Amino acid sequence: MTTLIEASGLHTYYGASHVLHGIDLRIEAGESIGLLGRNGMGKTTLIRTVMGHLAPAQGKIVIRGRDNTRAQPHQIARQGVAYVPEGRGIFPNLDVRENLLVAARPGYKGRKDWTYQRVLDTFPRLTERLGHGGQQLSGGEQQMLAIGRALMTNPDILILDEATEGLAPLIINEIWRIIEAIRDTGVATLIVDRNYRKVLTHTDRCVVLEKGKVVEQRDSPTLASQTELLTRYLGV
Ligand SMILES: Nc1ncnc2c1ncn2[C@@H]1O[C@H](COP(=O)(O)OP(=O)(O)OP(=O)(O)O)[C@@H](O)[C@H]1O
């Protein structure tokens, strides 16, 4: 396997508040990873550190063998790491088609797997809304558009933070179907979601954070059967 991202010994602060306490995270090409942990344990902070939105005080971030510890978010993105943050980030004044086309670019080493048509085929609901402005879409459609925009950058990994937050059950199922379809194409995924059962179902491996440290790391099917661990770390 080829290692896509290797973060080691990450320490991240917000001012004086020490949030990540020496985190190691390794993601192989094509692998699907879930990041679990109760609220405030550092999941979003870890993602934002890997993406270059927060600078770690200590530690290293290596992408495909190259040091990216001090890289800016756009430099990380150009290496095939696509991030769909909590709260989306689409252009409200552009329609669906424009939102997708404006995001289009080849991936790492010119990879062009995701055409406009292929993205639309993955999101039938967006196809029905092509001429609608971003602000006219429902929350679920906006989320789909945000994921579609990320795919238009031909990523090697898609990072999804709370992609189903606040959505209706039918739409949530549709988002999980899409995540699974993307996983099947060989794009790696890193997923944070409140529904830990869904995360365990749709990933190969899960990493559990507690107070900014990795406290467990197991194959998802194994972890799914460890109710005592899930109770201890997720309070379920
Ligand atoms: N911008 C910020 N400034 C200061 N502290 C922050 C900031 N963002 C997060 N924190 C704190 O950092 C800690 C980790 O937060 P983080 O958002 O990474 O957790 P999380 O595991 O993603 O949980 P959640 O699901 O609640 O977002 C929490 O104690 C939080 O209060």
**How many β-strands, per DSSP?**
10
Query: Using only CA atoms, what is the Rg?
Result: 17 Å
Number of domains: 1
Alpha carbon gap, first and last residue: 34 Å
- Within the CATH hierarchy, at the fold level, what is the topology? Rossmann fold
Corresponding CATH architecture = 3-Layer(aba) Sandwich
Task: Provide the CATH top-level class.
Answer: Alpha Beta
Count of helices? 10
Name the ligand types.
Answer: adenosine-5'-triphosphate
Give the strand content: 25-35%
Domain ABC transporter: 5-236
Pfam family, one: ABC_tran
GO molecular function, one term: branched-chain amino acid transmembrane transporter activity
Keywords: Amino-acid transport, ATP-binding, Cell membrane, Membrane, Nucleotide-binding, Transport
